[in-house]
Amino acid sequence: MPALEIYAVALPTPLRRTFDYLAAEPAEAAPAPQQTLLLQDDPAPSQPAHEPSIKGRPGMRVSVNFGNQKLIGVIVAVKEHSEFDLKKLKPILALLDATPLIPPELLHLCQWAAHYYHHPLGEVLAAAIPVALRQGEAAELSTEKAWQLTVNGLHCDLNELRRAPKQQQLLQQLQDEARLGVSTVLHKDLLLQAVNRNALKGLSDKGLIDALEITPEPLRPAKLLKTQPLVLNAEQSNALAQITLDDYTCHLLYGTTGSGKTEVYLQAIEQVLRAGKQALVLIPEIGLTPQTLSRFQRRFNRPLAVLHSNLNDTERKQAWLLAAAGDADIIIGTRSAIFTPLRRPGIVILDEEHDTSFKQQEGFRYSARDLAAVRCQRLGIPLILGSATPSLESYHNARQERYRLLLLTQRAGDAQPPAIELIDLKRQPLQEGLTQALLEQIEQHLLASGQVLVFINRRGFAPTLMCHDCGWLSQCHHCDARLTVHQQPAHLHCHHCDYQRPLIHHCPTCNSRELHCVGQGTERTETLLQNRFPDFPVIRVDRDSTRQKHAMSNIIDQVNRGEPCLLVGTQMLAKGHHFPNVTLVAIIDADGGLFSTDFRGPERMGQLLLQVAGRAGRAEKPGSVLIQSHLCEHPMLQTLLHQGYSAFAQLLLHERQLSMLPPFRFMALLRAESSRSENAHELLQIARNMAERICPSQPDLQYLGPLPAPMEKRNQRFRHQLQIHASSRAQLHQLLTPLIAELEQHPLSRRTRWSLDVDPQDMS
Ligand SMILES: Nc1ncnc2c1ncn2[C@@H]1O[C@H](COP(=O)(O)OP(=O)(O)OP(=O)(O)O)[C@@H](O)[C@H]1O
Ligand SMILES: [Zn+2]
Question: Do 348 and 330 contact (CB within 8 A), yes or no?
């Protein structure tokens, strides 16, 4: 009798363990497992995929009965023995893959993450696998709509289309690509390049192009490059030369805004592609920076897959499978793309590495940046972290020589660094928060045909509505927060719990009509600027104005047309945009971060200010930056603006060291929340007592709390936290492993919502 096979299966449940199942018996074996892609370098399975004799292997999906539900899980180990009574083990219902969907290397990453973040492996895997595959769909590439030039289209004289410039442009592009040997172009790629659908229809109606359905074959024309690389300046060449491609090194590419980091990435990727390997590029938010994506598309004649939150389930699965099969050479994605399987991994690049979006703040709270380092180390491939304003963690690692520091101190090409000037707000008459001096400068830049970017990090019209007669404030009843006044459309809105109500015109307490909007938001600044500069378009960029799918790329197109205009927006404007005609950046209020309760407040403020400032003068026209502040003499602001980010980062690091905070200490945050404040507090007190028993508070391991969170009440729930600080990661995890195991068993922990955040980035 053949030895019994037992699968340890990770299931998407909150339980921190795997579950043993028996392999299906041949007689009642699985319904035909669907054909899967071959993800490993091993030969094709010897049996056809439908043979029930296919054996389960780690990384394959199975469906199983779990309680009274049917779940899909992933085999993480195959064993001959179980610590459970064999008679009680159930057989799996079906084996869903013929070869592992999750290659061993990726499975290892997920296991590492589950262990490090003390999170259930089943949930980690669920985060790693696209929804469609998680729900059991076959791991098969779908067909896609594509376009091909007809014979007429190939030879059509472009002049014939001069009345239809969009069609003409598109036809030219397709003819150019055809000459490079690219005969079919995927519909989705054209849409990504913002090609007009009507232009496609026009060419198709004229019989110049044909639509077809293809299973995209990876197209790799002999010519690797579509456009020639730029000639690197000395700093860029030096940086590129120091990037080691054949083993693991983490490089911190620390380059001032506009210094041409992207060009260094592109040329490093070129070498990786020439070596026949794949590049994985992580960027903060693709929807916000379609420009970045198009720079990669314009450079390489190689299949590219994009993974971001705007994709539907099928598109996501497709991109993931293309990467897994090695059919995509460049994979560009946001945070969760760190879990993309790669058949020929060659390099991982994380652009804007300081960006907080690389840390997942809900559920499985992981850092894509830290996981990238773990993954690259294991794969023996290079990692590049790039930023003009590196996180203190990465900067510290570079100073400790754990990362290789690559510096770009000059702007690329002929662009000059912008001149930065502070405007003291104290005792100045203000118009909706703007000083006279600032308004005059804005006017001068507009009259000189420049574009002006006005940064204000708050959306809506005003952060509060107040009664001038009785002092009533528009408090949210669900949160310790105020309702924000919005005018477009008019309503009151809590930005924390999403509660909304119509705008009121009488004070609910004293019935006075004297309701005043207090403070500024983007809508209010927009209105002021529209009234003050009626001859120039004012474009607002915030979450509200960019909700629609192509809103952001439309805005970017408008700005890139180059006519003078005013851009008013939140930090969405700070994110890696390249607006060559912006000559003035105005920052309405620099002070927020200096008062923050979060110890990372000043770091974030400095990053944001420099990132926004970096949008000025990126091409031939020189740029200026004006920053309004009530605290012009503040040492942090002074250091940042006069000595630069490195000095600022060193100052902050020194303070972190004195106050024993990360990156000098390692932190975990245990959060609890409940509709009854006492419950959340009590659970954390229990946790603290357990922790003290496992490892008493001592200089190397300290507890702080339980304390109410900075915003204690949010969405009707009261939130508390317990901070755990340790002098080494090892110490922290030696405590967390037994602590979480014990806490899970406590009855109150089943009734109270709680979570653990290892290396928390946001202390709220
Ligand atoms: N070697 C070079 N010669 C000429 N122009 C260059 C060179 N390298 C980059 N550039 C140009 O400089 C501009 C800024 O480069 P890029 O956007 O790559 O900078 P960055 O460091 O990524 O900027 P940021 O961090 O501000 O987003 C781009 O228009 C780019 O084409
Ligand atoms: Zn609220």
Answer: no
CB atoms within 10 A of CB 303: 21
Average of pLDDT values for 671-697? 94
Q: Is 45 in the pocket of ligand 1 (CB under 6 A)?
A: no
| DSSP H or E segment with residue 199 | helix 197-205
Residue 223 class from Cβ within 10 Å (0-12 exposed, 13-18 middle, 19+ buried)?
Answer: exposed
What is the C-alpha separation between 640 and 303, in angstroms, rounded?
A: 42
Has the ipTM of the complex gone over 0.85? yes
Among 231, 349, 578, 618, say which to mutate for ligand 1: greatest number of ligand atoms within 8 Å of CB.
Answer: 578
Q: How far apart (Å, rounded) are the C-alpha atoms in residues 592 and 614?
A: 19
Compute the distance between CA of residue 58 and CA of residue 76 in angstroms, rounded to an integer.
5
> Taking the CB of residue 374, how many other CB atoms lie within 10 A of it?
17
User: 494: annotated binding-site residue?
Assistant: yes
CA distances for 133 relative to 15, 38, 75, angstroms: 21, 15, 14
- The verdict on the CB of residue 264 being under 6 Å from ligand 1 is no
What is the residue with the minimal CA distance to atom 23 of ligand 1?
A: 258
Task: Establish whether residue 611 lines the binding site of ligand 1, counting it when its CB lies within 6 angstroms of any ligand atom.
Answer: no
pLDDT for 552-562, tens place per residue? 888 888 888 98
CB of 435 closer than 6 angstroms to any ligand 1 atom: no
The residue whose CA is least distant from atom 14 of ligand 1 is: 258
Find the helix packing angle between 729-745 and 677-694, rounded to 10°: 120
Closest by CA position to 121, among listed 10, 271, 232, 250: 10
Q: What is the pLDDT of residues 180-208, one digit of tens each?
A: 888 788 888 888 888 888 999 999 999 99
- Number of neighbours of residue 210 by Cβ within 10 angstroms: 14
CA distance 394 to 641: 21
Residue 615 has pLDDT above 90, yes or no: no
Does residue 663 have a cis peptide bond before it, meaning omega lies within 30 degrees of 0? Answer: yes
> Where are the strands (E) in 245-321, listed by range?
250-255, 278-282, 304-307
- Which burial class, exposed, middle or buried, applies to 274 when counting CB atoms under 10 A from its CB (0-12, 13-18, 19+)? exposed
| pTM, 2 dp | 0.85
Q: Ligand 1 centre and the CA of 411: distance in Å?
A: 7
Q: Please give the domain boundaries of the chain with CATH numbers for all domains.
A: 6-134 (3.40.1440.60), 144-214 (1.10.10), 234-277+303-408 (3.40.50.300), 419-462+519-656 (3.40.50.300), 666-758 (3.30.70.600)
Q: Residue 625: phi, psi to the nearest 5?
A: -130, 130
